[in-house]
Amino acid sequence: MVNVMAKKVREKLAHKEKEVERRDRMLIHDFSSERATLEEVFDQATLMVIYDFLNSGVLDEVHGVVNAGKEARVYWGKDKEGRELAVKIYLTASAEFRKGMLKYIEGDYRFKGVKRDTRSLIYAWAQKEFRNLQQASRARVRVPKPVAVRNNVLVMEFIGKDGTNAPSLKEELPSDPEKVYGILLTFLERLYRKADLVHGDLSEYNVMIWKGKPVIFDMAQAVPTSHPMAEFFLRRDLANLNRFFSRLGVNVLPVDDAYRKVVG
């Protein structure tokens, strides 16, 4: 009986080992075109998080990069049901990024005890985006739905199809700009009143158009309404929207009027 049990355990371990090897090969194959940045993005700690997500079923596949910036890389993935996911990996070695994020973390009561070393800040930044996405989703603001977060890796809903992400407002103008402008003002109002958040960096660069409707993304810098710079950030968001949509012929609200509409 003991020998039978031991055999079963060995077989199970061997199967798991083969599964991990297969995934390793898949990752190496998919990221072979990213050799120059492989070490920067996939350090040992990051790889362990990815493997844990693969082994726990959060992810079933990870494919190529769909967006690469100074602060993060976004990869296309899928879960076991075939649902498309975005795997966002923040770069833990970016000192410039560290400097820029401080004003959004300081004053955020949710992250009071965060250490100031780069790795701790970036781990907090990923957690911050996850929590902001949760709060926004609950407030019925259309954002990518968060799935999981650990260290500098955030998994969320993929906005797009077959590994091609939806275009941003900057990349593709909306067919009905007046309608989109109105929806975005409603989203800012819901963010402020129901999610207790101000986006803080809203522009045509971080609004996607998917199936004719706007989806707000890049939520890491969003701050609570109690943040000392919340009013400044909100007015800046509104000014950015007005600048963009006025160029498309939309009769935009003056920033003061839009601000009163949002905060009530």
Question: What report would you give on this structure?
Answer:
By secondary structure, this protein is of the alpha+beta class. The chain has two domains: about 30-160, Phosphorylase Kinase, domain 1 (2-Layer Sandwich), CATH 3.30.200.20; about 165-264, Transferase(Phosphotransferase), domain 1. Helix content is about 45%, strand content about 20%. It is built from eight helices and eleven strands. It has helices at about 1-30, 35-40, 45-55, 95-105, 120-140, 175-195, 230-245, 255-264; strands spanning about 60-70, 70-80, 85-90, 145-150, 155, 160, 165, 195-200, 205-210, 215, 225. The strands form four sheets. A five-stranded antiparallel β-sheet has the order 1-2-3-5-4, sandwiched between helices. Helix 4 (about 95-105) packs across helix 5, helix 6 crosses helix 8 (about 255-264) and helix 7 (about 230-245) crosses helix 8 (about 255-264). The longest helix is centred in the N-terminal third of the chain and has 29 residues, at about 1-30. It is globular and about 50 Å long. The relative contact order is 0.10.
Strand order of the largest sheet: 1-2-3-5-4
Amino-to-carboxy terminus distance? 71 Å
Choose one word for the global shape: globular
CATH topology of the largest domain, which one? Answer: Phosphorylase Kinase, domain 1
The secondary structure category is: alpha+beta
- Helix count, DSSP H or I runs of 4 or more residues: 8
User: Which architecture of the largest domain per CATH?
Assistant: 2-Layer Sandwich
Portion in helices = 40-55%
Tally of extended strands? 11
CATH class of the largest domain: Alpha Beta
CATH superfamily of the largest domain: Phosphorylase Kinase, domain 1
Tally of structural domains? 2
The string of secondary-structure elements, in order, is HHHEEEHHEEEEHEEEEHH
* Overall pLDDT metric: 85
Uncertain residue segments = 28-40
Strand content: 15-25%
**Radius of gyration over all CA atoms, rounded:** 21 Å
Largest sheet: 5 strands, antiparallel
